[in-house]
Amino acid sequence: MRRWRIAILAALVSGLSAQPAPSQDEGQADLGNKAAAMPTDLEDVDSLPVVLTPEQEELAAEIESMLKCPVCRSQSVRTSRSFMAEDMSRRIRRMVAEGRSKEEIREYFVARYGDYIVLAPRKEGFTWTVWLLPFALVLGGAVTIVAVARRWRGQPPPAPPAAPPAGTYMQELERELEETK
Amino acid sequence: MKRFLVVMILAGVVGMFAWALSREQTLASPLVGKPAPAFSMPLYAADSTLDLETLRGTPVVLNFWASWCLSCRDEARVLEAGWDRYGPEVAFVGIAVNDEEGPAEDFIRRYGKTYHLGSDVDGSVAVDYGLYGVPETFFIGRDGRILSRHIGPLTAADLDRRIAELEAGAVGEASGDPSRVQPLSIEGP
C-alpha cells in the first residue's frame, strides 16, 4: 500500500517536473510548494523523492557512506537496503536539500543514536584508542619480532644429537648383518 | 612476569572488542533528558492528526509498534490497561512504523486499543527518535523532555514504575530486553 502511494506520488511529481523548466533553484522551491498543495488525503508527501543537484547528490552520498545502518551488521546507510536505511537516506537527502552541512547532519544522527551511528569515529577523547590501537598493535608486534630475533641470534648453534656409544652400535650392526646372511 | 603482561594486554584488547560489539544495541538513548522531537501524525480512529505539542503539560507514554511485531502483541493489553488506569492524566500515544493501514487497523481492533494511535507514514518519526526496532517506548515528562526509554515489550510492573517516575518528573534508568526488539531491517508480512 505504502509502495503504491509512493509510486503514485512519484508519478505526480514527474508529471509536474515535465512542465516548462524553471531555473534550478526555482524548480526546487516550486516542487516543495506543489507537493504541499496537492489536493489529496495522502499524508506521506514527506516521502516524495527529494530532487538534488549533482553537488548535493555527491554530498548526500558521502554522508550516507559515513553513517551506519543501525539495524545492519557493519553496513552503511548507502549500502544497506533495509527500511531503516531508506528512512535515514530520505532524511539525509531532505536535510541536504535544506542546505544543512555535513557536520550538522552528522550531529543530528549522533544526537539520536550516539557516536555508534558514525562508521568512522571522531578523533577525540576515548575514540582515539580506536584509531591508535591498530598502530600500537603493529608496533608492538614489530618490537616483539625484533626482540625474539635478537635473542635467537645471540644463542649458540644447537649441538648435534648425541651419537650412541660406538661399541654398542657396531655390535648391533654386526649382529644384524650376521642374521641376514 | 612478561607472560602475565602479554596475557593482560591480550585480555584488554579482547575485552575492548567485546565491549564494542555489545554496544551494537544499547539500552541508553542520547535523547534522554532532551526535548522530545516534535511530530504530527494522522490518527487511525478519526479523520484527524495528533501533534505532540498539544500534549505539553501532560506526561506521555509514547510507544512505537507494528502489527507484524510479535513482542508488540505481548504488550498490547498492558498498554490498553495502562490507558484505562492512568488516562487521561497520562497520555498514551502509539505510533505504527513500517506498517500497512489494513493490518494496523486489524491489530487495533483485535486488542481493543482506544488511545491515540497513528502512523509514522514516511518513517521520519522513527528516525527522529533514533529507533532500532519495535516495540520501543519513550516516557515524556510534562515539560516535554524525554525522561526514559524502554526497549522490548513492557510489563505492567514496568509501566507502573515508569509512570511513577513520569509523575515525579524524574529521569529514569534505561531498561528493557534488546533481544525482544524486532529491528526495522525488513518490512513485516
Model description:
The complex is a heterodimer of chains A (181) and B (189). Residues 1-45 of chain A have low confidence and may be disordered. Chain A is mostly helical and 181 residues long. The longest helix of chain A is centred in the last third of the chain and has 27 residues, at 128-154. Chain A is elongated. In chain A, α3 crosses α4 (83-97). Chain A has helices at residues 2-17, 24-37, 54-66, 83-97, 102-113, 128-154, 166-180. Chain A has seven helices and no strands. Chain B has one domain (29-183): Glutaredoxin (3-Layer(aba) Sandwich). Chain B is 35% helix and 21% strand. Chain B has five helices and ten strands. Chain B has helices at residues 2-22, 70-86, 101-110, 124-128, 156-168; strands at residues 40-42, 49-51, 60-65, 91-96, 116-119, 133-134, 136-140, 146-151, 175-176, 182-183. The radius of gyration of chain B is 19 Å and the shape is globular. The relative contact order of chain B is 0.20. Chains A and B meet through α4, α5 and α6 of A and α1 and α4 of B.
Task: Provide a compact summary of the structure.
Chain A has 181 residues and is mainly α.
Would you tell me the overall average pLDDT of chain A?
73
Nearest-angstrom radius of gyration of chain A? Answer: 35 Å
Mean pLDDT over the full residue set of chain B: 86
Q: DSSP helix count of chain A?
A: 7
Principal-axes geometry of chain B comes out as globular
